[in-house]
Amino acid sequence: MILVIAEQQSGTLNRSSWETIAAAQQAGGPVKVAVLGAATGAAAGELAAAAVTEVLRVEAPALSPYTLDGFVSALGQVVAAEQPESVWLPHTYQTRDFAPALAVHLGRALVTDCIGTKSDGARRLFVRPVFQGRLLADVAVDGPALATFQIGAIRADSLVRGAAPAPVRTVAVSVDAGAIRQAPEAPFREAKQAVDLTQAERIVAVGRGIKEAEKVVLAQQLAAAIGADIGASRPICDAGWLPMDRQIGSSGQTVAPKLYLALGISGAIQHLVGMKGARTIVAINKDPEAPIFEVADYGVVGDLFEIVPAVIKELKG
């Protein structure tokens, strides 16, 4: 049995939770899903729509707000009771905080940033990128393991929904609030306009082809016209033309929107690692040999300073 740990904030499920459940379904065998917090009813009700064996509500007052110690204590008890073959989690900021400590607590191996699995006889192999996505490694683990799955690696819309809601069970855990060493504060926000691009459904991203900071406004106008968020390749953020929280790639955010518009982005491997999971990729670049066209669903060879204004005009017309 695979136990998937879903992530929720204030009752709202992180989209990457659905992707991890879909990955577990594709692996075959029974799947259970656990969701943690002080009030998990709404999130558990949503998760019950998936074709899974059971949804586990893991509730305790000390689990809200999130703390590393609280989650490790609660999940340690859940894993001990359920005895899953492996524990799968979305590769989010929160998971990256507590998963290593949970692995140590359980005495299990941890494989991070997976993009899928495969079988080697009776063994399950976890597939993960190495060398900034240039190669893929098949990781074999002896015994039960924990694994985190890269955002966008598995399509959320590949999730299999059940003919009837899955049963929901409340799991009693004892979390000693006095043993929690962290004193959580309000979530950090650099600025009011800061955005988590991993949750964006549409993204307009700019690269070196935008040429100068003043031209970024053109991409922002296109983003506004289609209701998208703005992103960028690393050189744009390094130059200070856009904030660092807008960077997409191996050293930035990994995104999987429904639509990704790449403006003047050549397509270096470091950037492709962060956006190739997008459902539809549209690239505009004047270089017909740009690597971005190898992953694009639609490619436009031409001057973005001519094409983008024409697209904006059509959208507003």
Number of domains: 2
The secondary-structure class comes to alpha/beta
Please give the CATH class of the largest domain. Alpha Beta
Shape: elongated
Spans where pLDDT lies below 50 across 5 or more residues: none
**Number of helical regions:** 8
Give me the side-by-side strand order of the main sheet. 7-11-6-1-4-5-12
Number of strands: 17
Q: What CATH architecture of the largest domain would you give?
A: 3-Layer(aba) Sandwich
Describe the main β-sheet briefly.
Answer: 7 strands, parallel
Helicity, as a percent range: 25-40%
Name the helix and strand elements from N-terminus to C-terminus, one letter apiece: EEEHEHEHEHEEEEEEEHEHEHEEH
What is the gyration radius calculated from CA atoms?
21 Å
- How much β-strand is present in the residues? 25-35%
Look at the structure and name the CATH superfamily of the largest domain: HUPs
Distance between the termini: 54 Å
What can you see in these coordinates?
- By secondary structure, the chain is an alpha/beta fold.
- Helices cover 27% and strands 27% of the residues.
- The protein has helices spanning 15-27, 41-47, 68-82, 93-106, 216-226, 234-238, 269-275, 304-316; strands spanning 2-6, 8-9, 12-13, 31-37, 54-59, 86-90, 109-114, 116-120, 123-130, 135-140, 145-149, 168-172, 202-206, 229-232, 259-263, 280-285, 298-301.
- The protein has a 7-stranded parallel sheet, with helices on both faces. It has a 5-stranded parallel sheet with strand order 14-13-15-16-17. A 3-stranded antiparallel sheet has the order 8-9-10, with no helix packed on it.
- Helix 7 (269-275) links the parallel strand 15 and strand 16.
- Helix 3 crosses helix 4 (93-106) and helix 5 packs parallel to helix 8 (304-316).
- It is elongated, with a radius of gyration of 21 Å.
- The N and C termini lie far apart (54 Å).
